[in-house]
Amino acid sequence: MSTTQAGTTQTGTATSLLRFATAGSVDDGKSTLVGRLLHDSKSVLADQLEAVEHASRRRGQEAPDLALLTDGLRAEREQGITIDVAYRYFATARRRFILADTPGHVQYTRNMVTGASTAELAVVLVDARNGVVEQTRRHAAVAALLRVPHVVLAVNKMDLVDYAEPVFAAIAEEFTAYAASLGVKDVVAVPISALAGDNVVEPSANMDWYGGPTLLEHLETVPVGTDPSAEPARFPVQYVIRPQSEEFHDYRGYAGQLASGVLRVGDAVTVLPSGHTSTVAAIDALGTATEIAWAPQSVTVRLADDIDISRGDLIAAGRVPVPTKDVEATVCHLNERPLHVGAKVLLKHTTRTVRALVKEISYRIDIDSLEQRSGAEGLNVNDIGHVVLRTAEPLALDDYTDNRRTGSFVLIDPSDGTTLTAGMAGEAFDTVSTTDAPDAPAEEDWV
Length: 447
Known about the structure:
By secondary structure, the chain is an alpha+beta fold. It contains seven helices and 23 strands.
């Protein structure tokens, strides 16, 4: 039911960190699952549990409703659904966790994109009575779109189907096949009952036919991260440091966070988008000189040559992206205001923000069927599609499939600064074929 993720990774240790997101259809029990995970892993403070018990008694419930631990908004409690992304931080003896609890309703697909954008694992919840439904496929597709490397299928409410193994096996087979068609290579299926606690933290006595790990055990042991030395170095410049003091008369350092890869003193680098080359003369970390830096460290880099470098430039080593003003990308529209062809926007990529024009909306992706629909009319909130942008200045973007940090960007409304769209350079899925695109409009003088 699972495959091994390629590459050098880090298994569960006391210092490792796993960022993961949860998603599931309305009433699949996702909030109860997250509450059970926090409760049974002893990650709930006494006063929080007391408040939940008190609220449950007011509702006439004898046992504490663990869903109340996560549904923090009043509207969420009243409607019984998750609306916004809620971040939870907890730890066990083996690993630290950052959990993004994302909404399951189709209306809030954009929130799942936000929550899963930095996740290394996604937990997709299904109701054992309903199996794989439309929203399940949507969540799997979003996880594949965002290149989340690990997916867990949590088949919940097994107690309501008499813990039947054939029910679980059929759901797991259907979901795994669909995920594979999207390019998801690592899928692990776990039968659970969040309400009763079966296979969430402790093994279930009701499903002796299941020999795999509990959900928490898998979260504690799944390989996370990659070997930074296997990735090309990408260093977006945030700030140029020029003390111009007697002590540091000739000091010129470039401060920022290493987005990927490893930088060493002596490495040959290229500054983008200018294309000038140099070598790393020194690296300072917390005021101390060091010979090496790796992602995601924040450091100051000094080069052997005096080059005109400012905020937004990218210092790159290894395989270098080609700067371009024509950006093709898969996007998820996040704003209630539609995105139309001809729209003037700001494009923020790492530390660089440039003006851009929406030249073409090639197509909109039907997430349920993966079919392409005409995108000429624009993209509405939660829509996922393919666009072509023309920028005022060249950008050095990696393909999102190669680098999630330097292959992503956001589109911003220049009039009020609100975020409009999340973008990922390149195509969405290998299985989605390109259709005939509408004619592109003439470029405007704005770019």
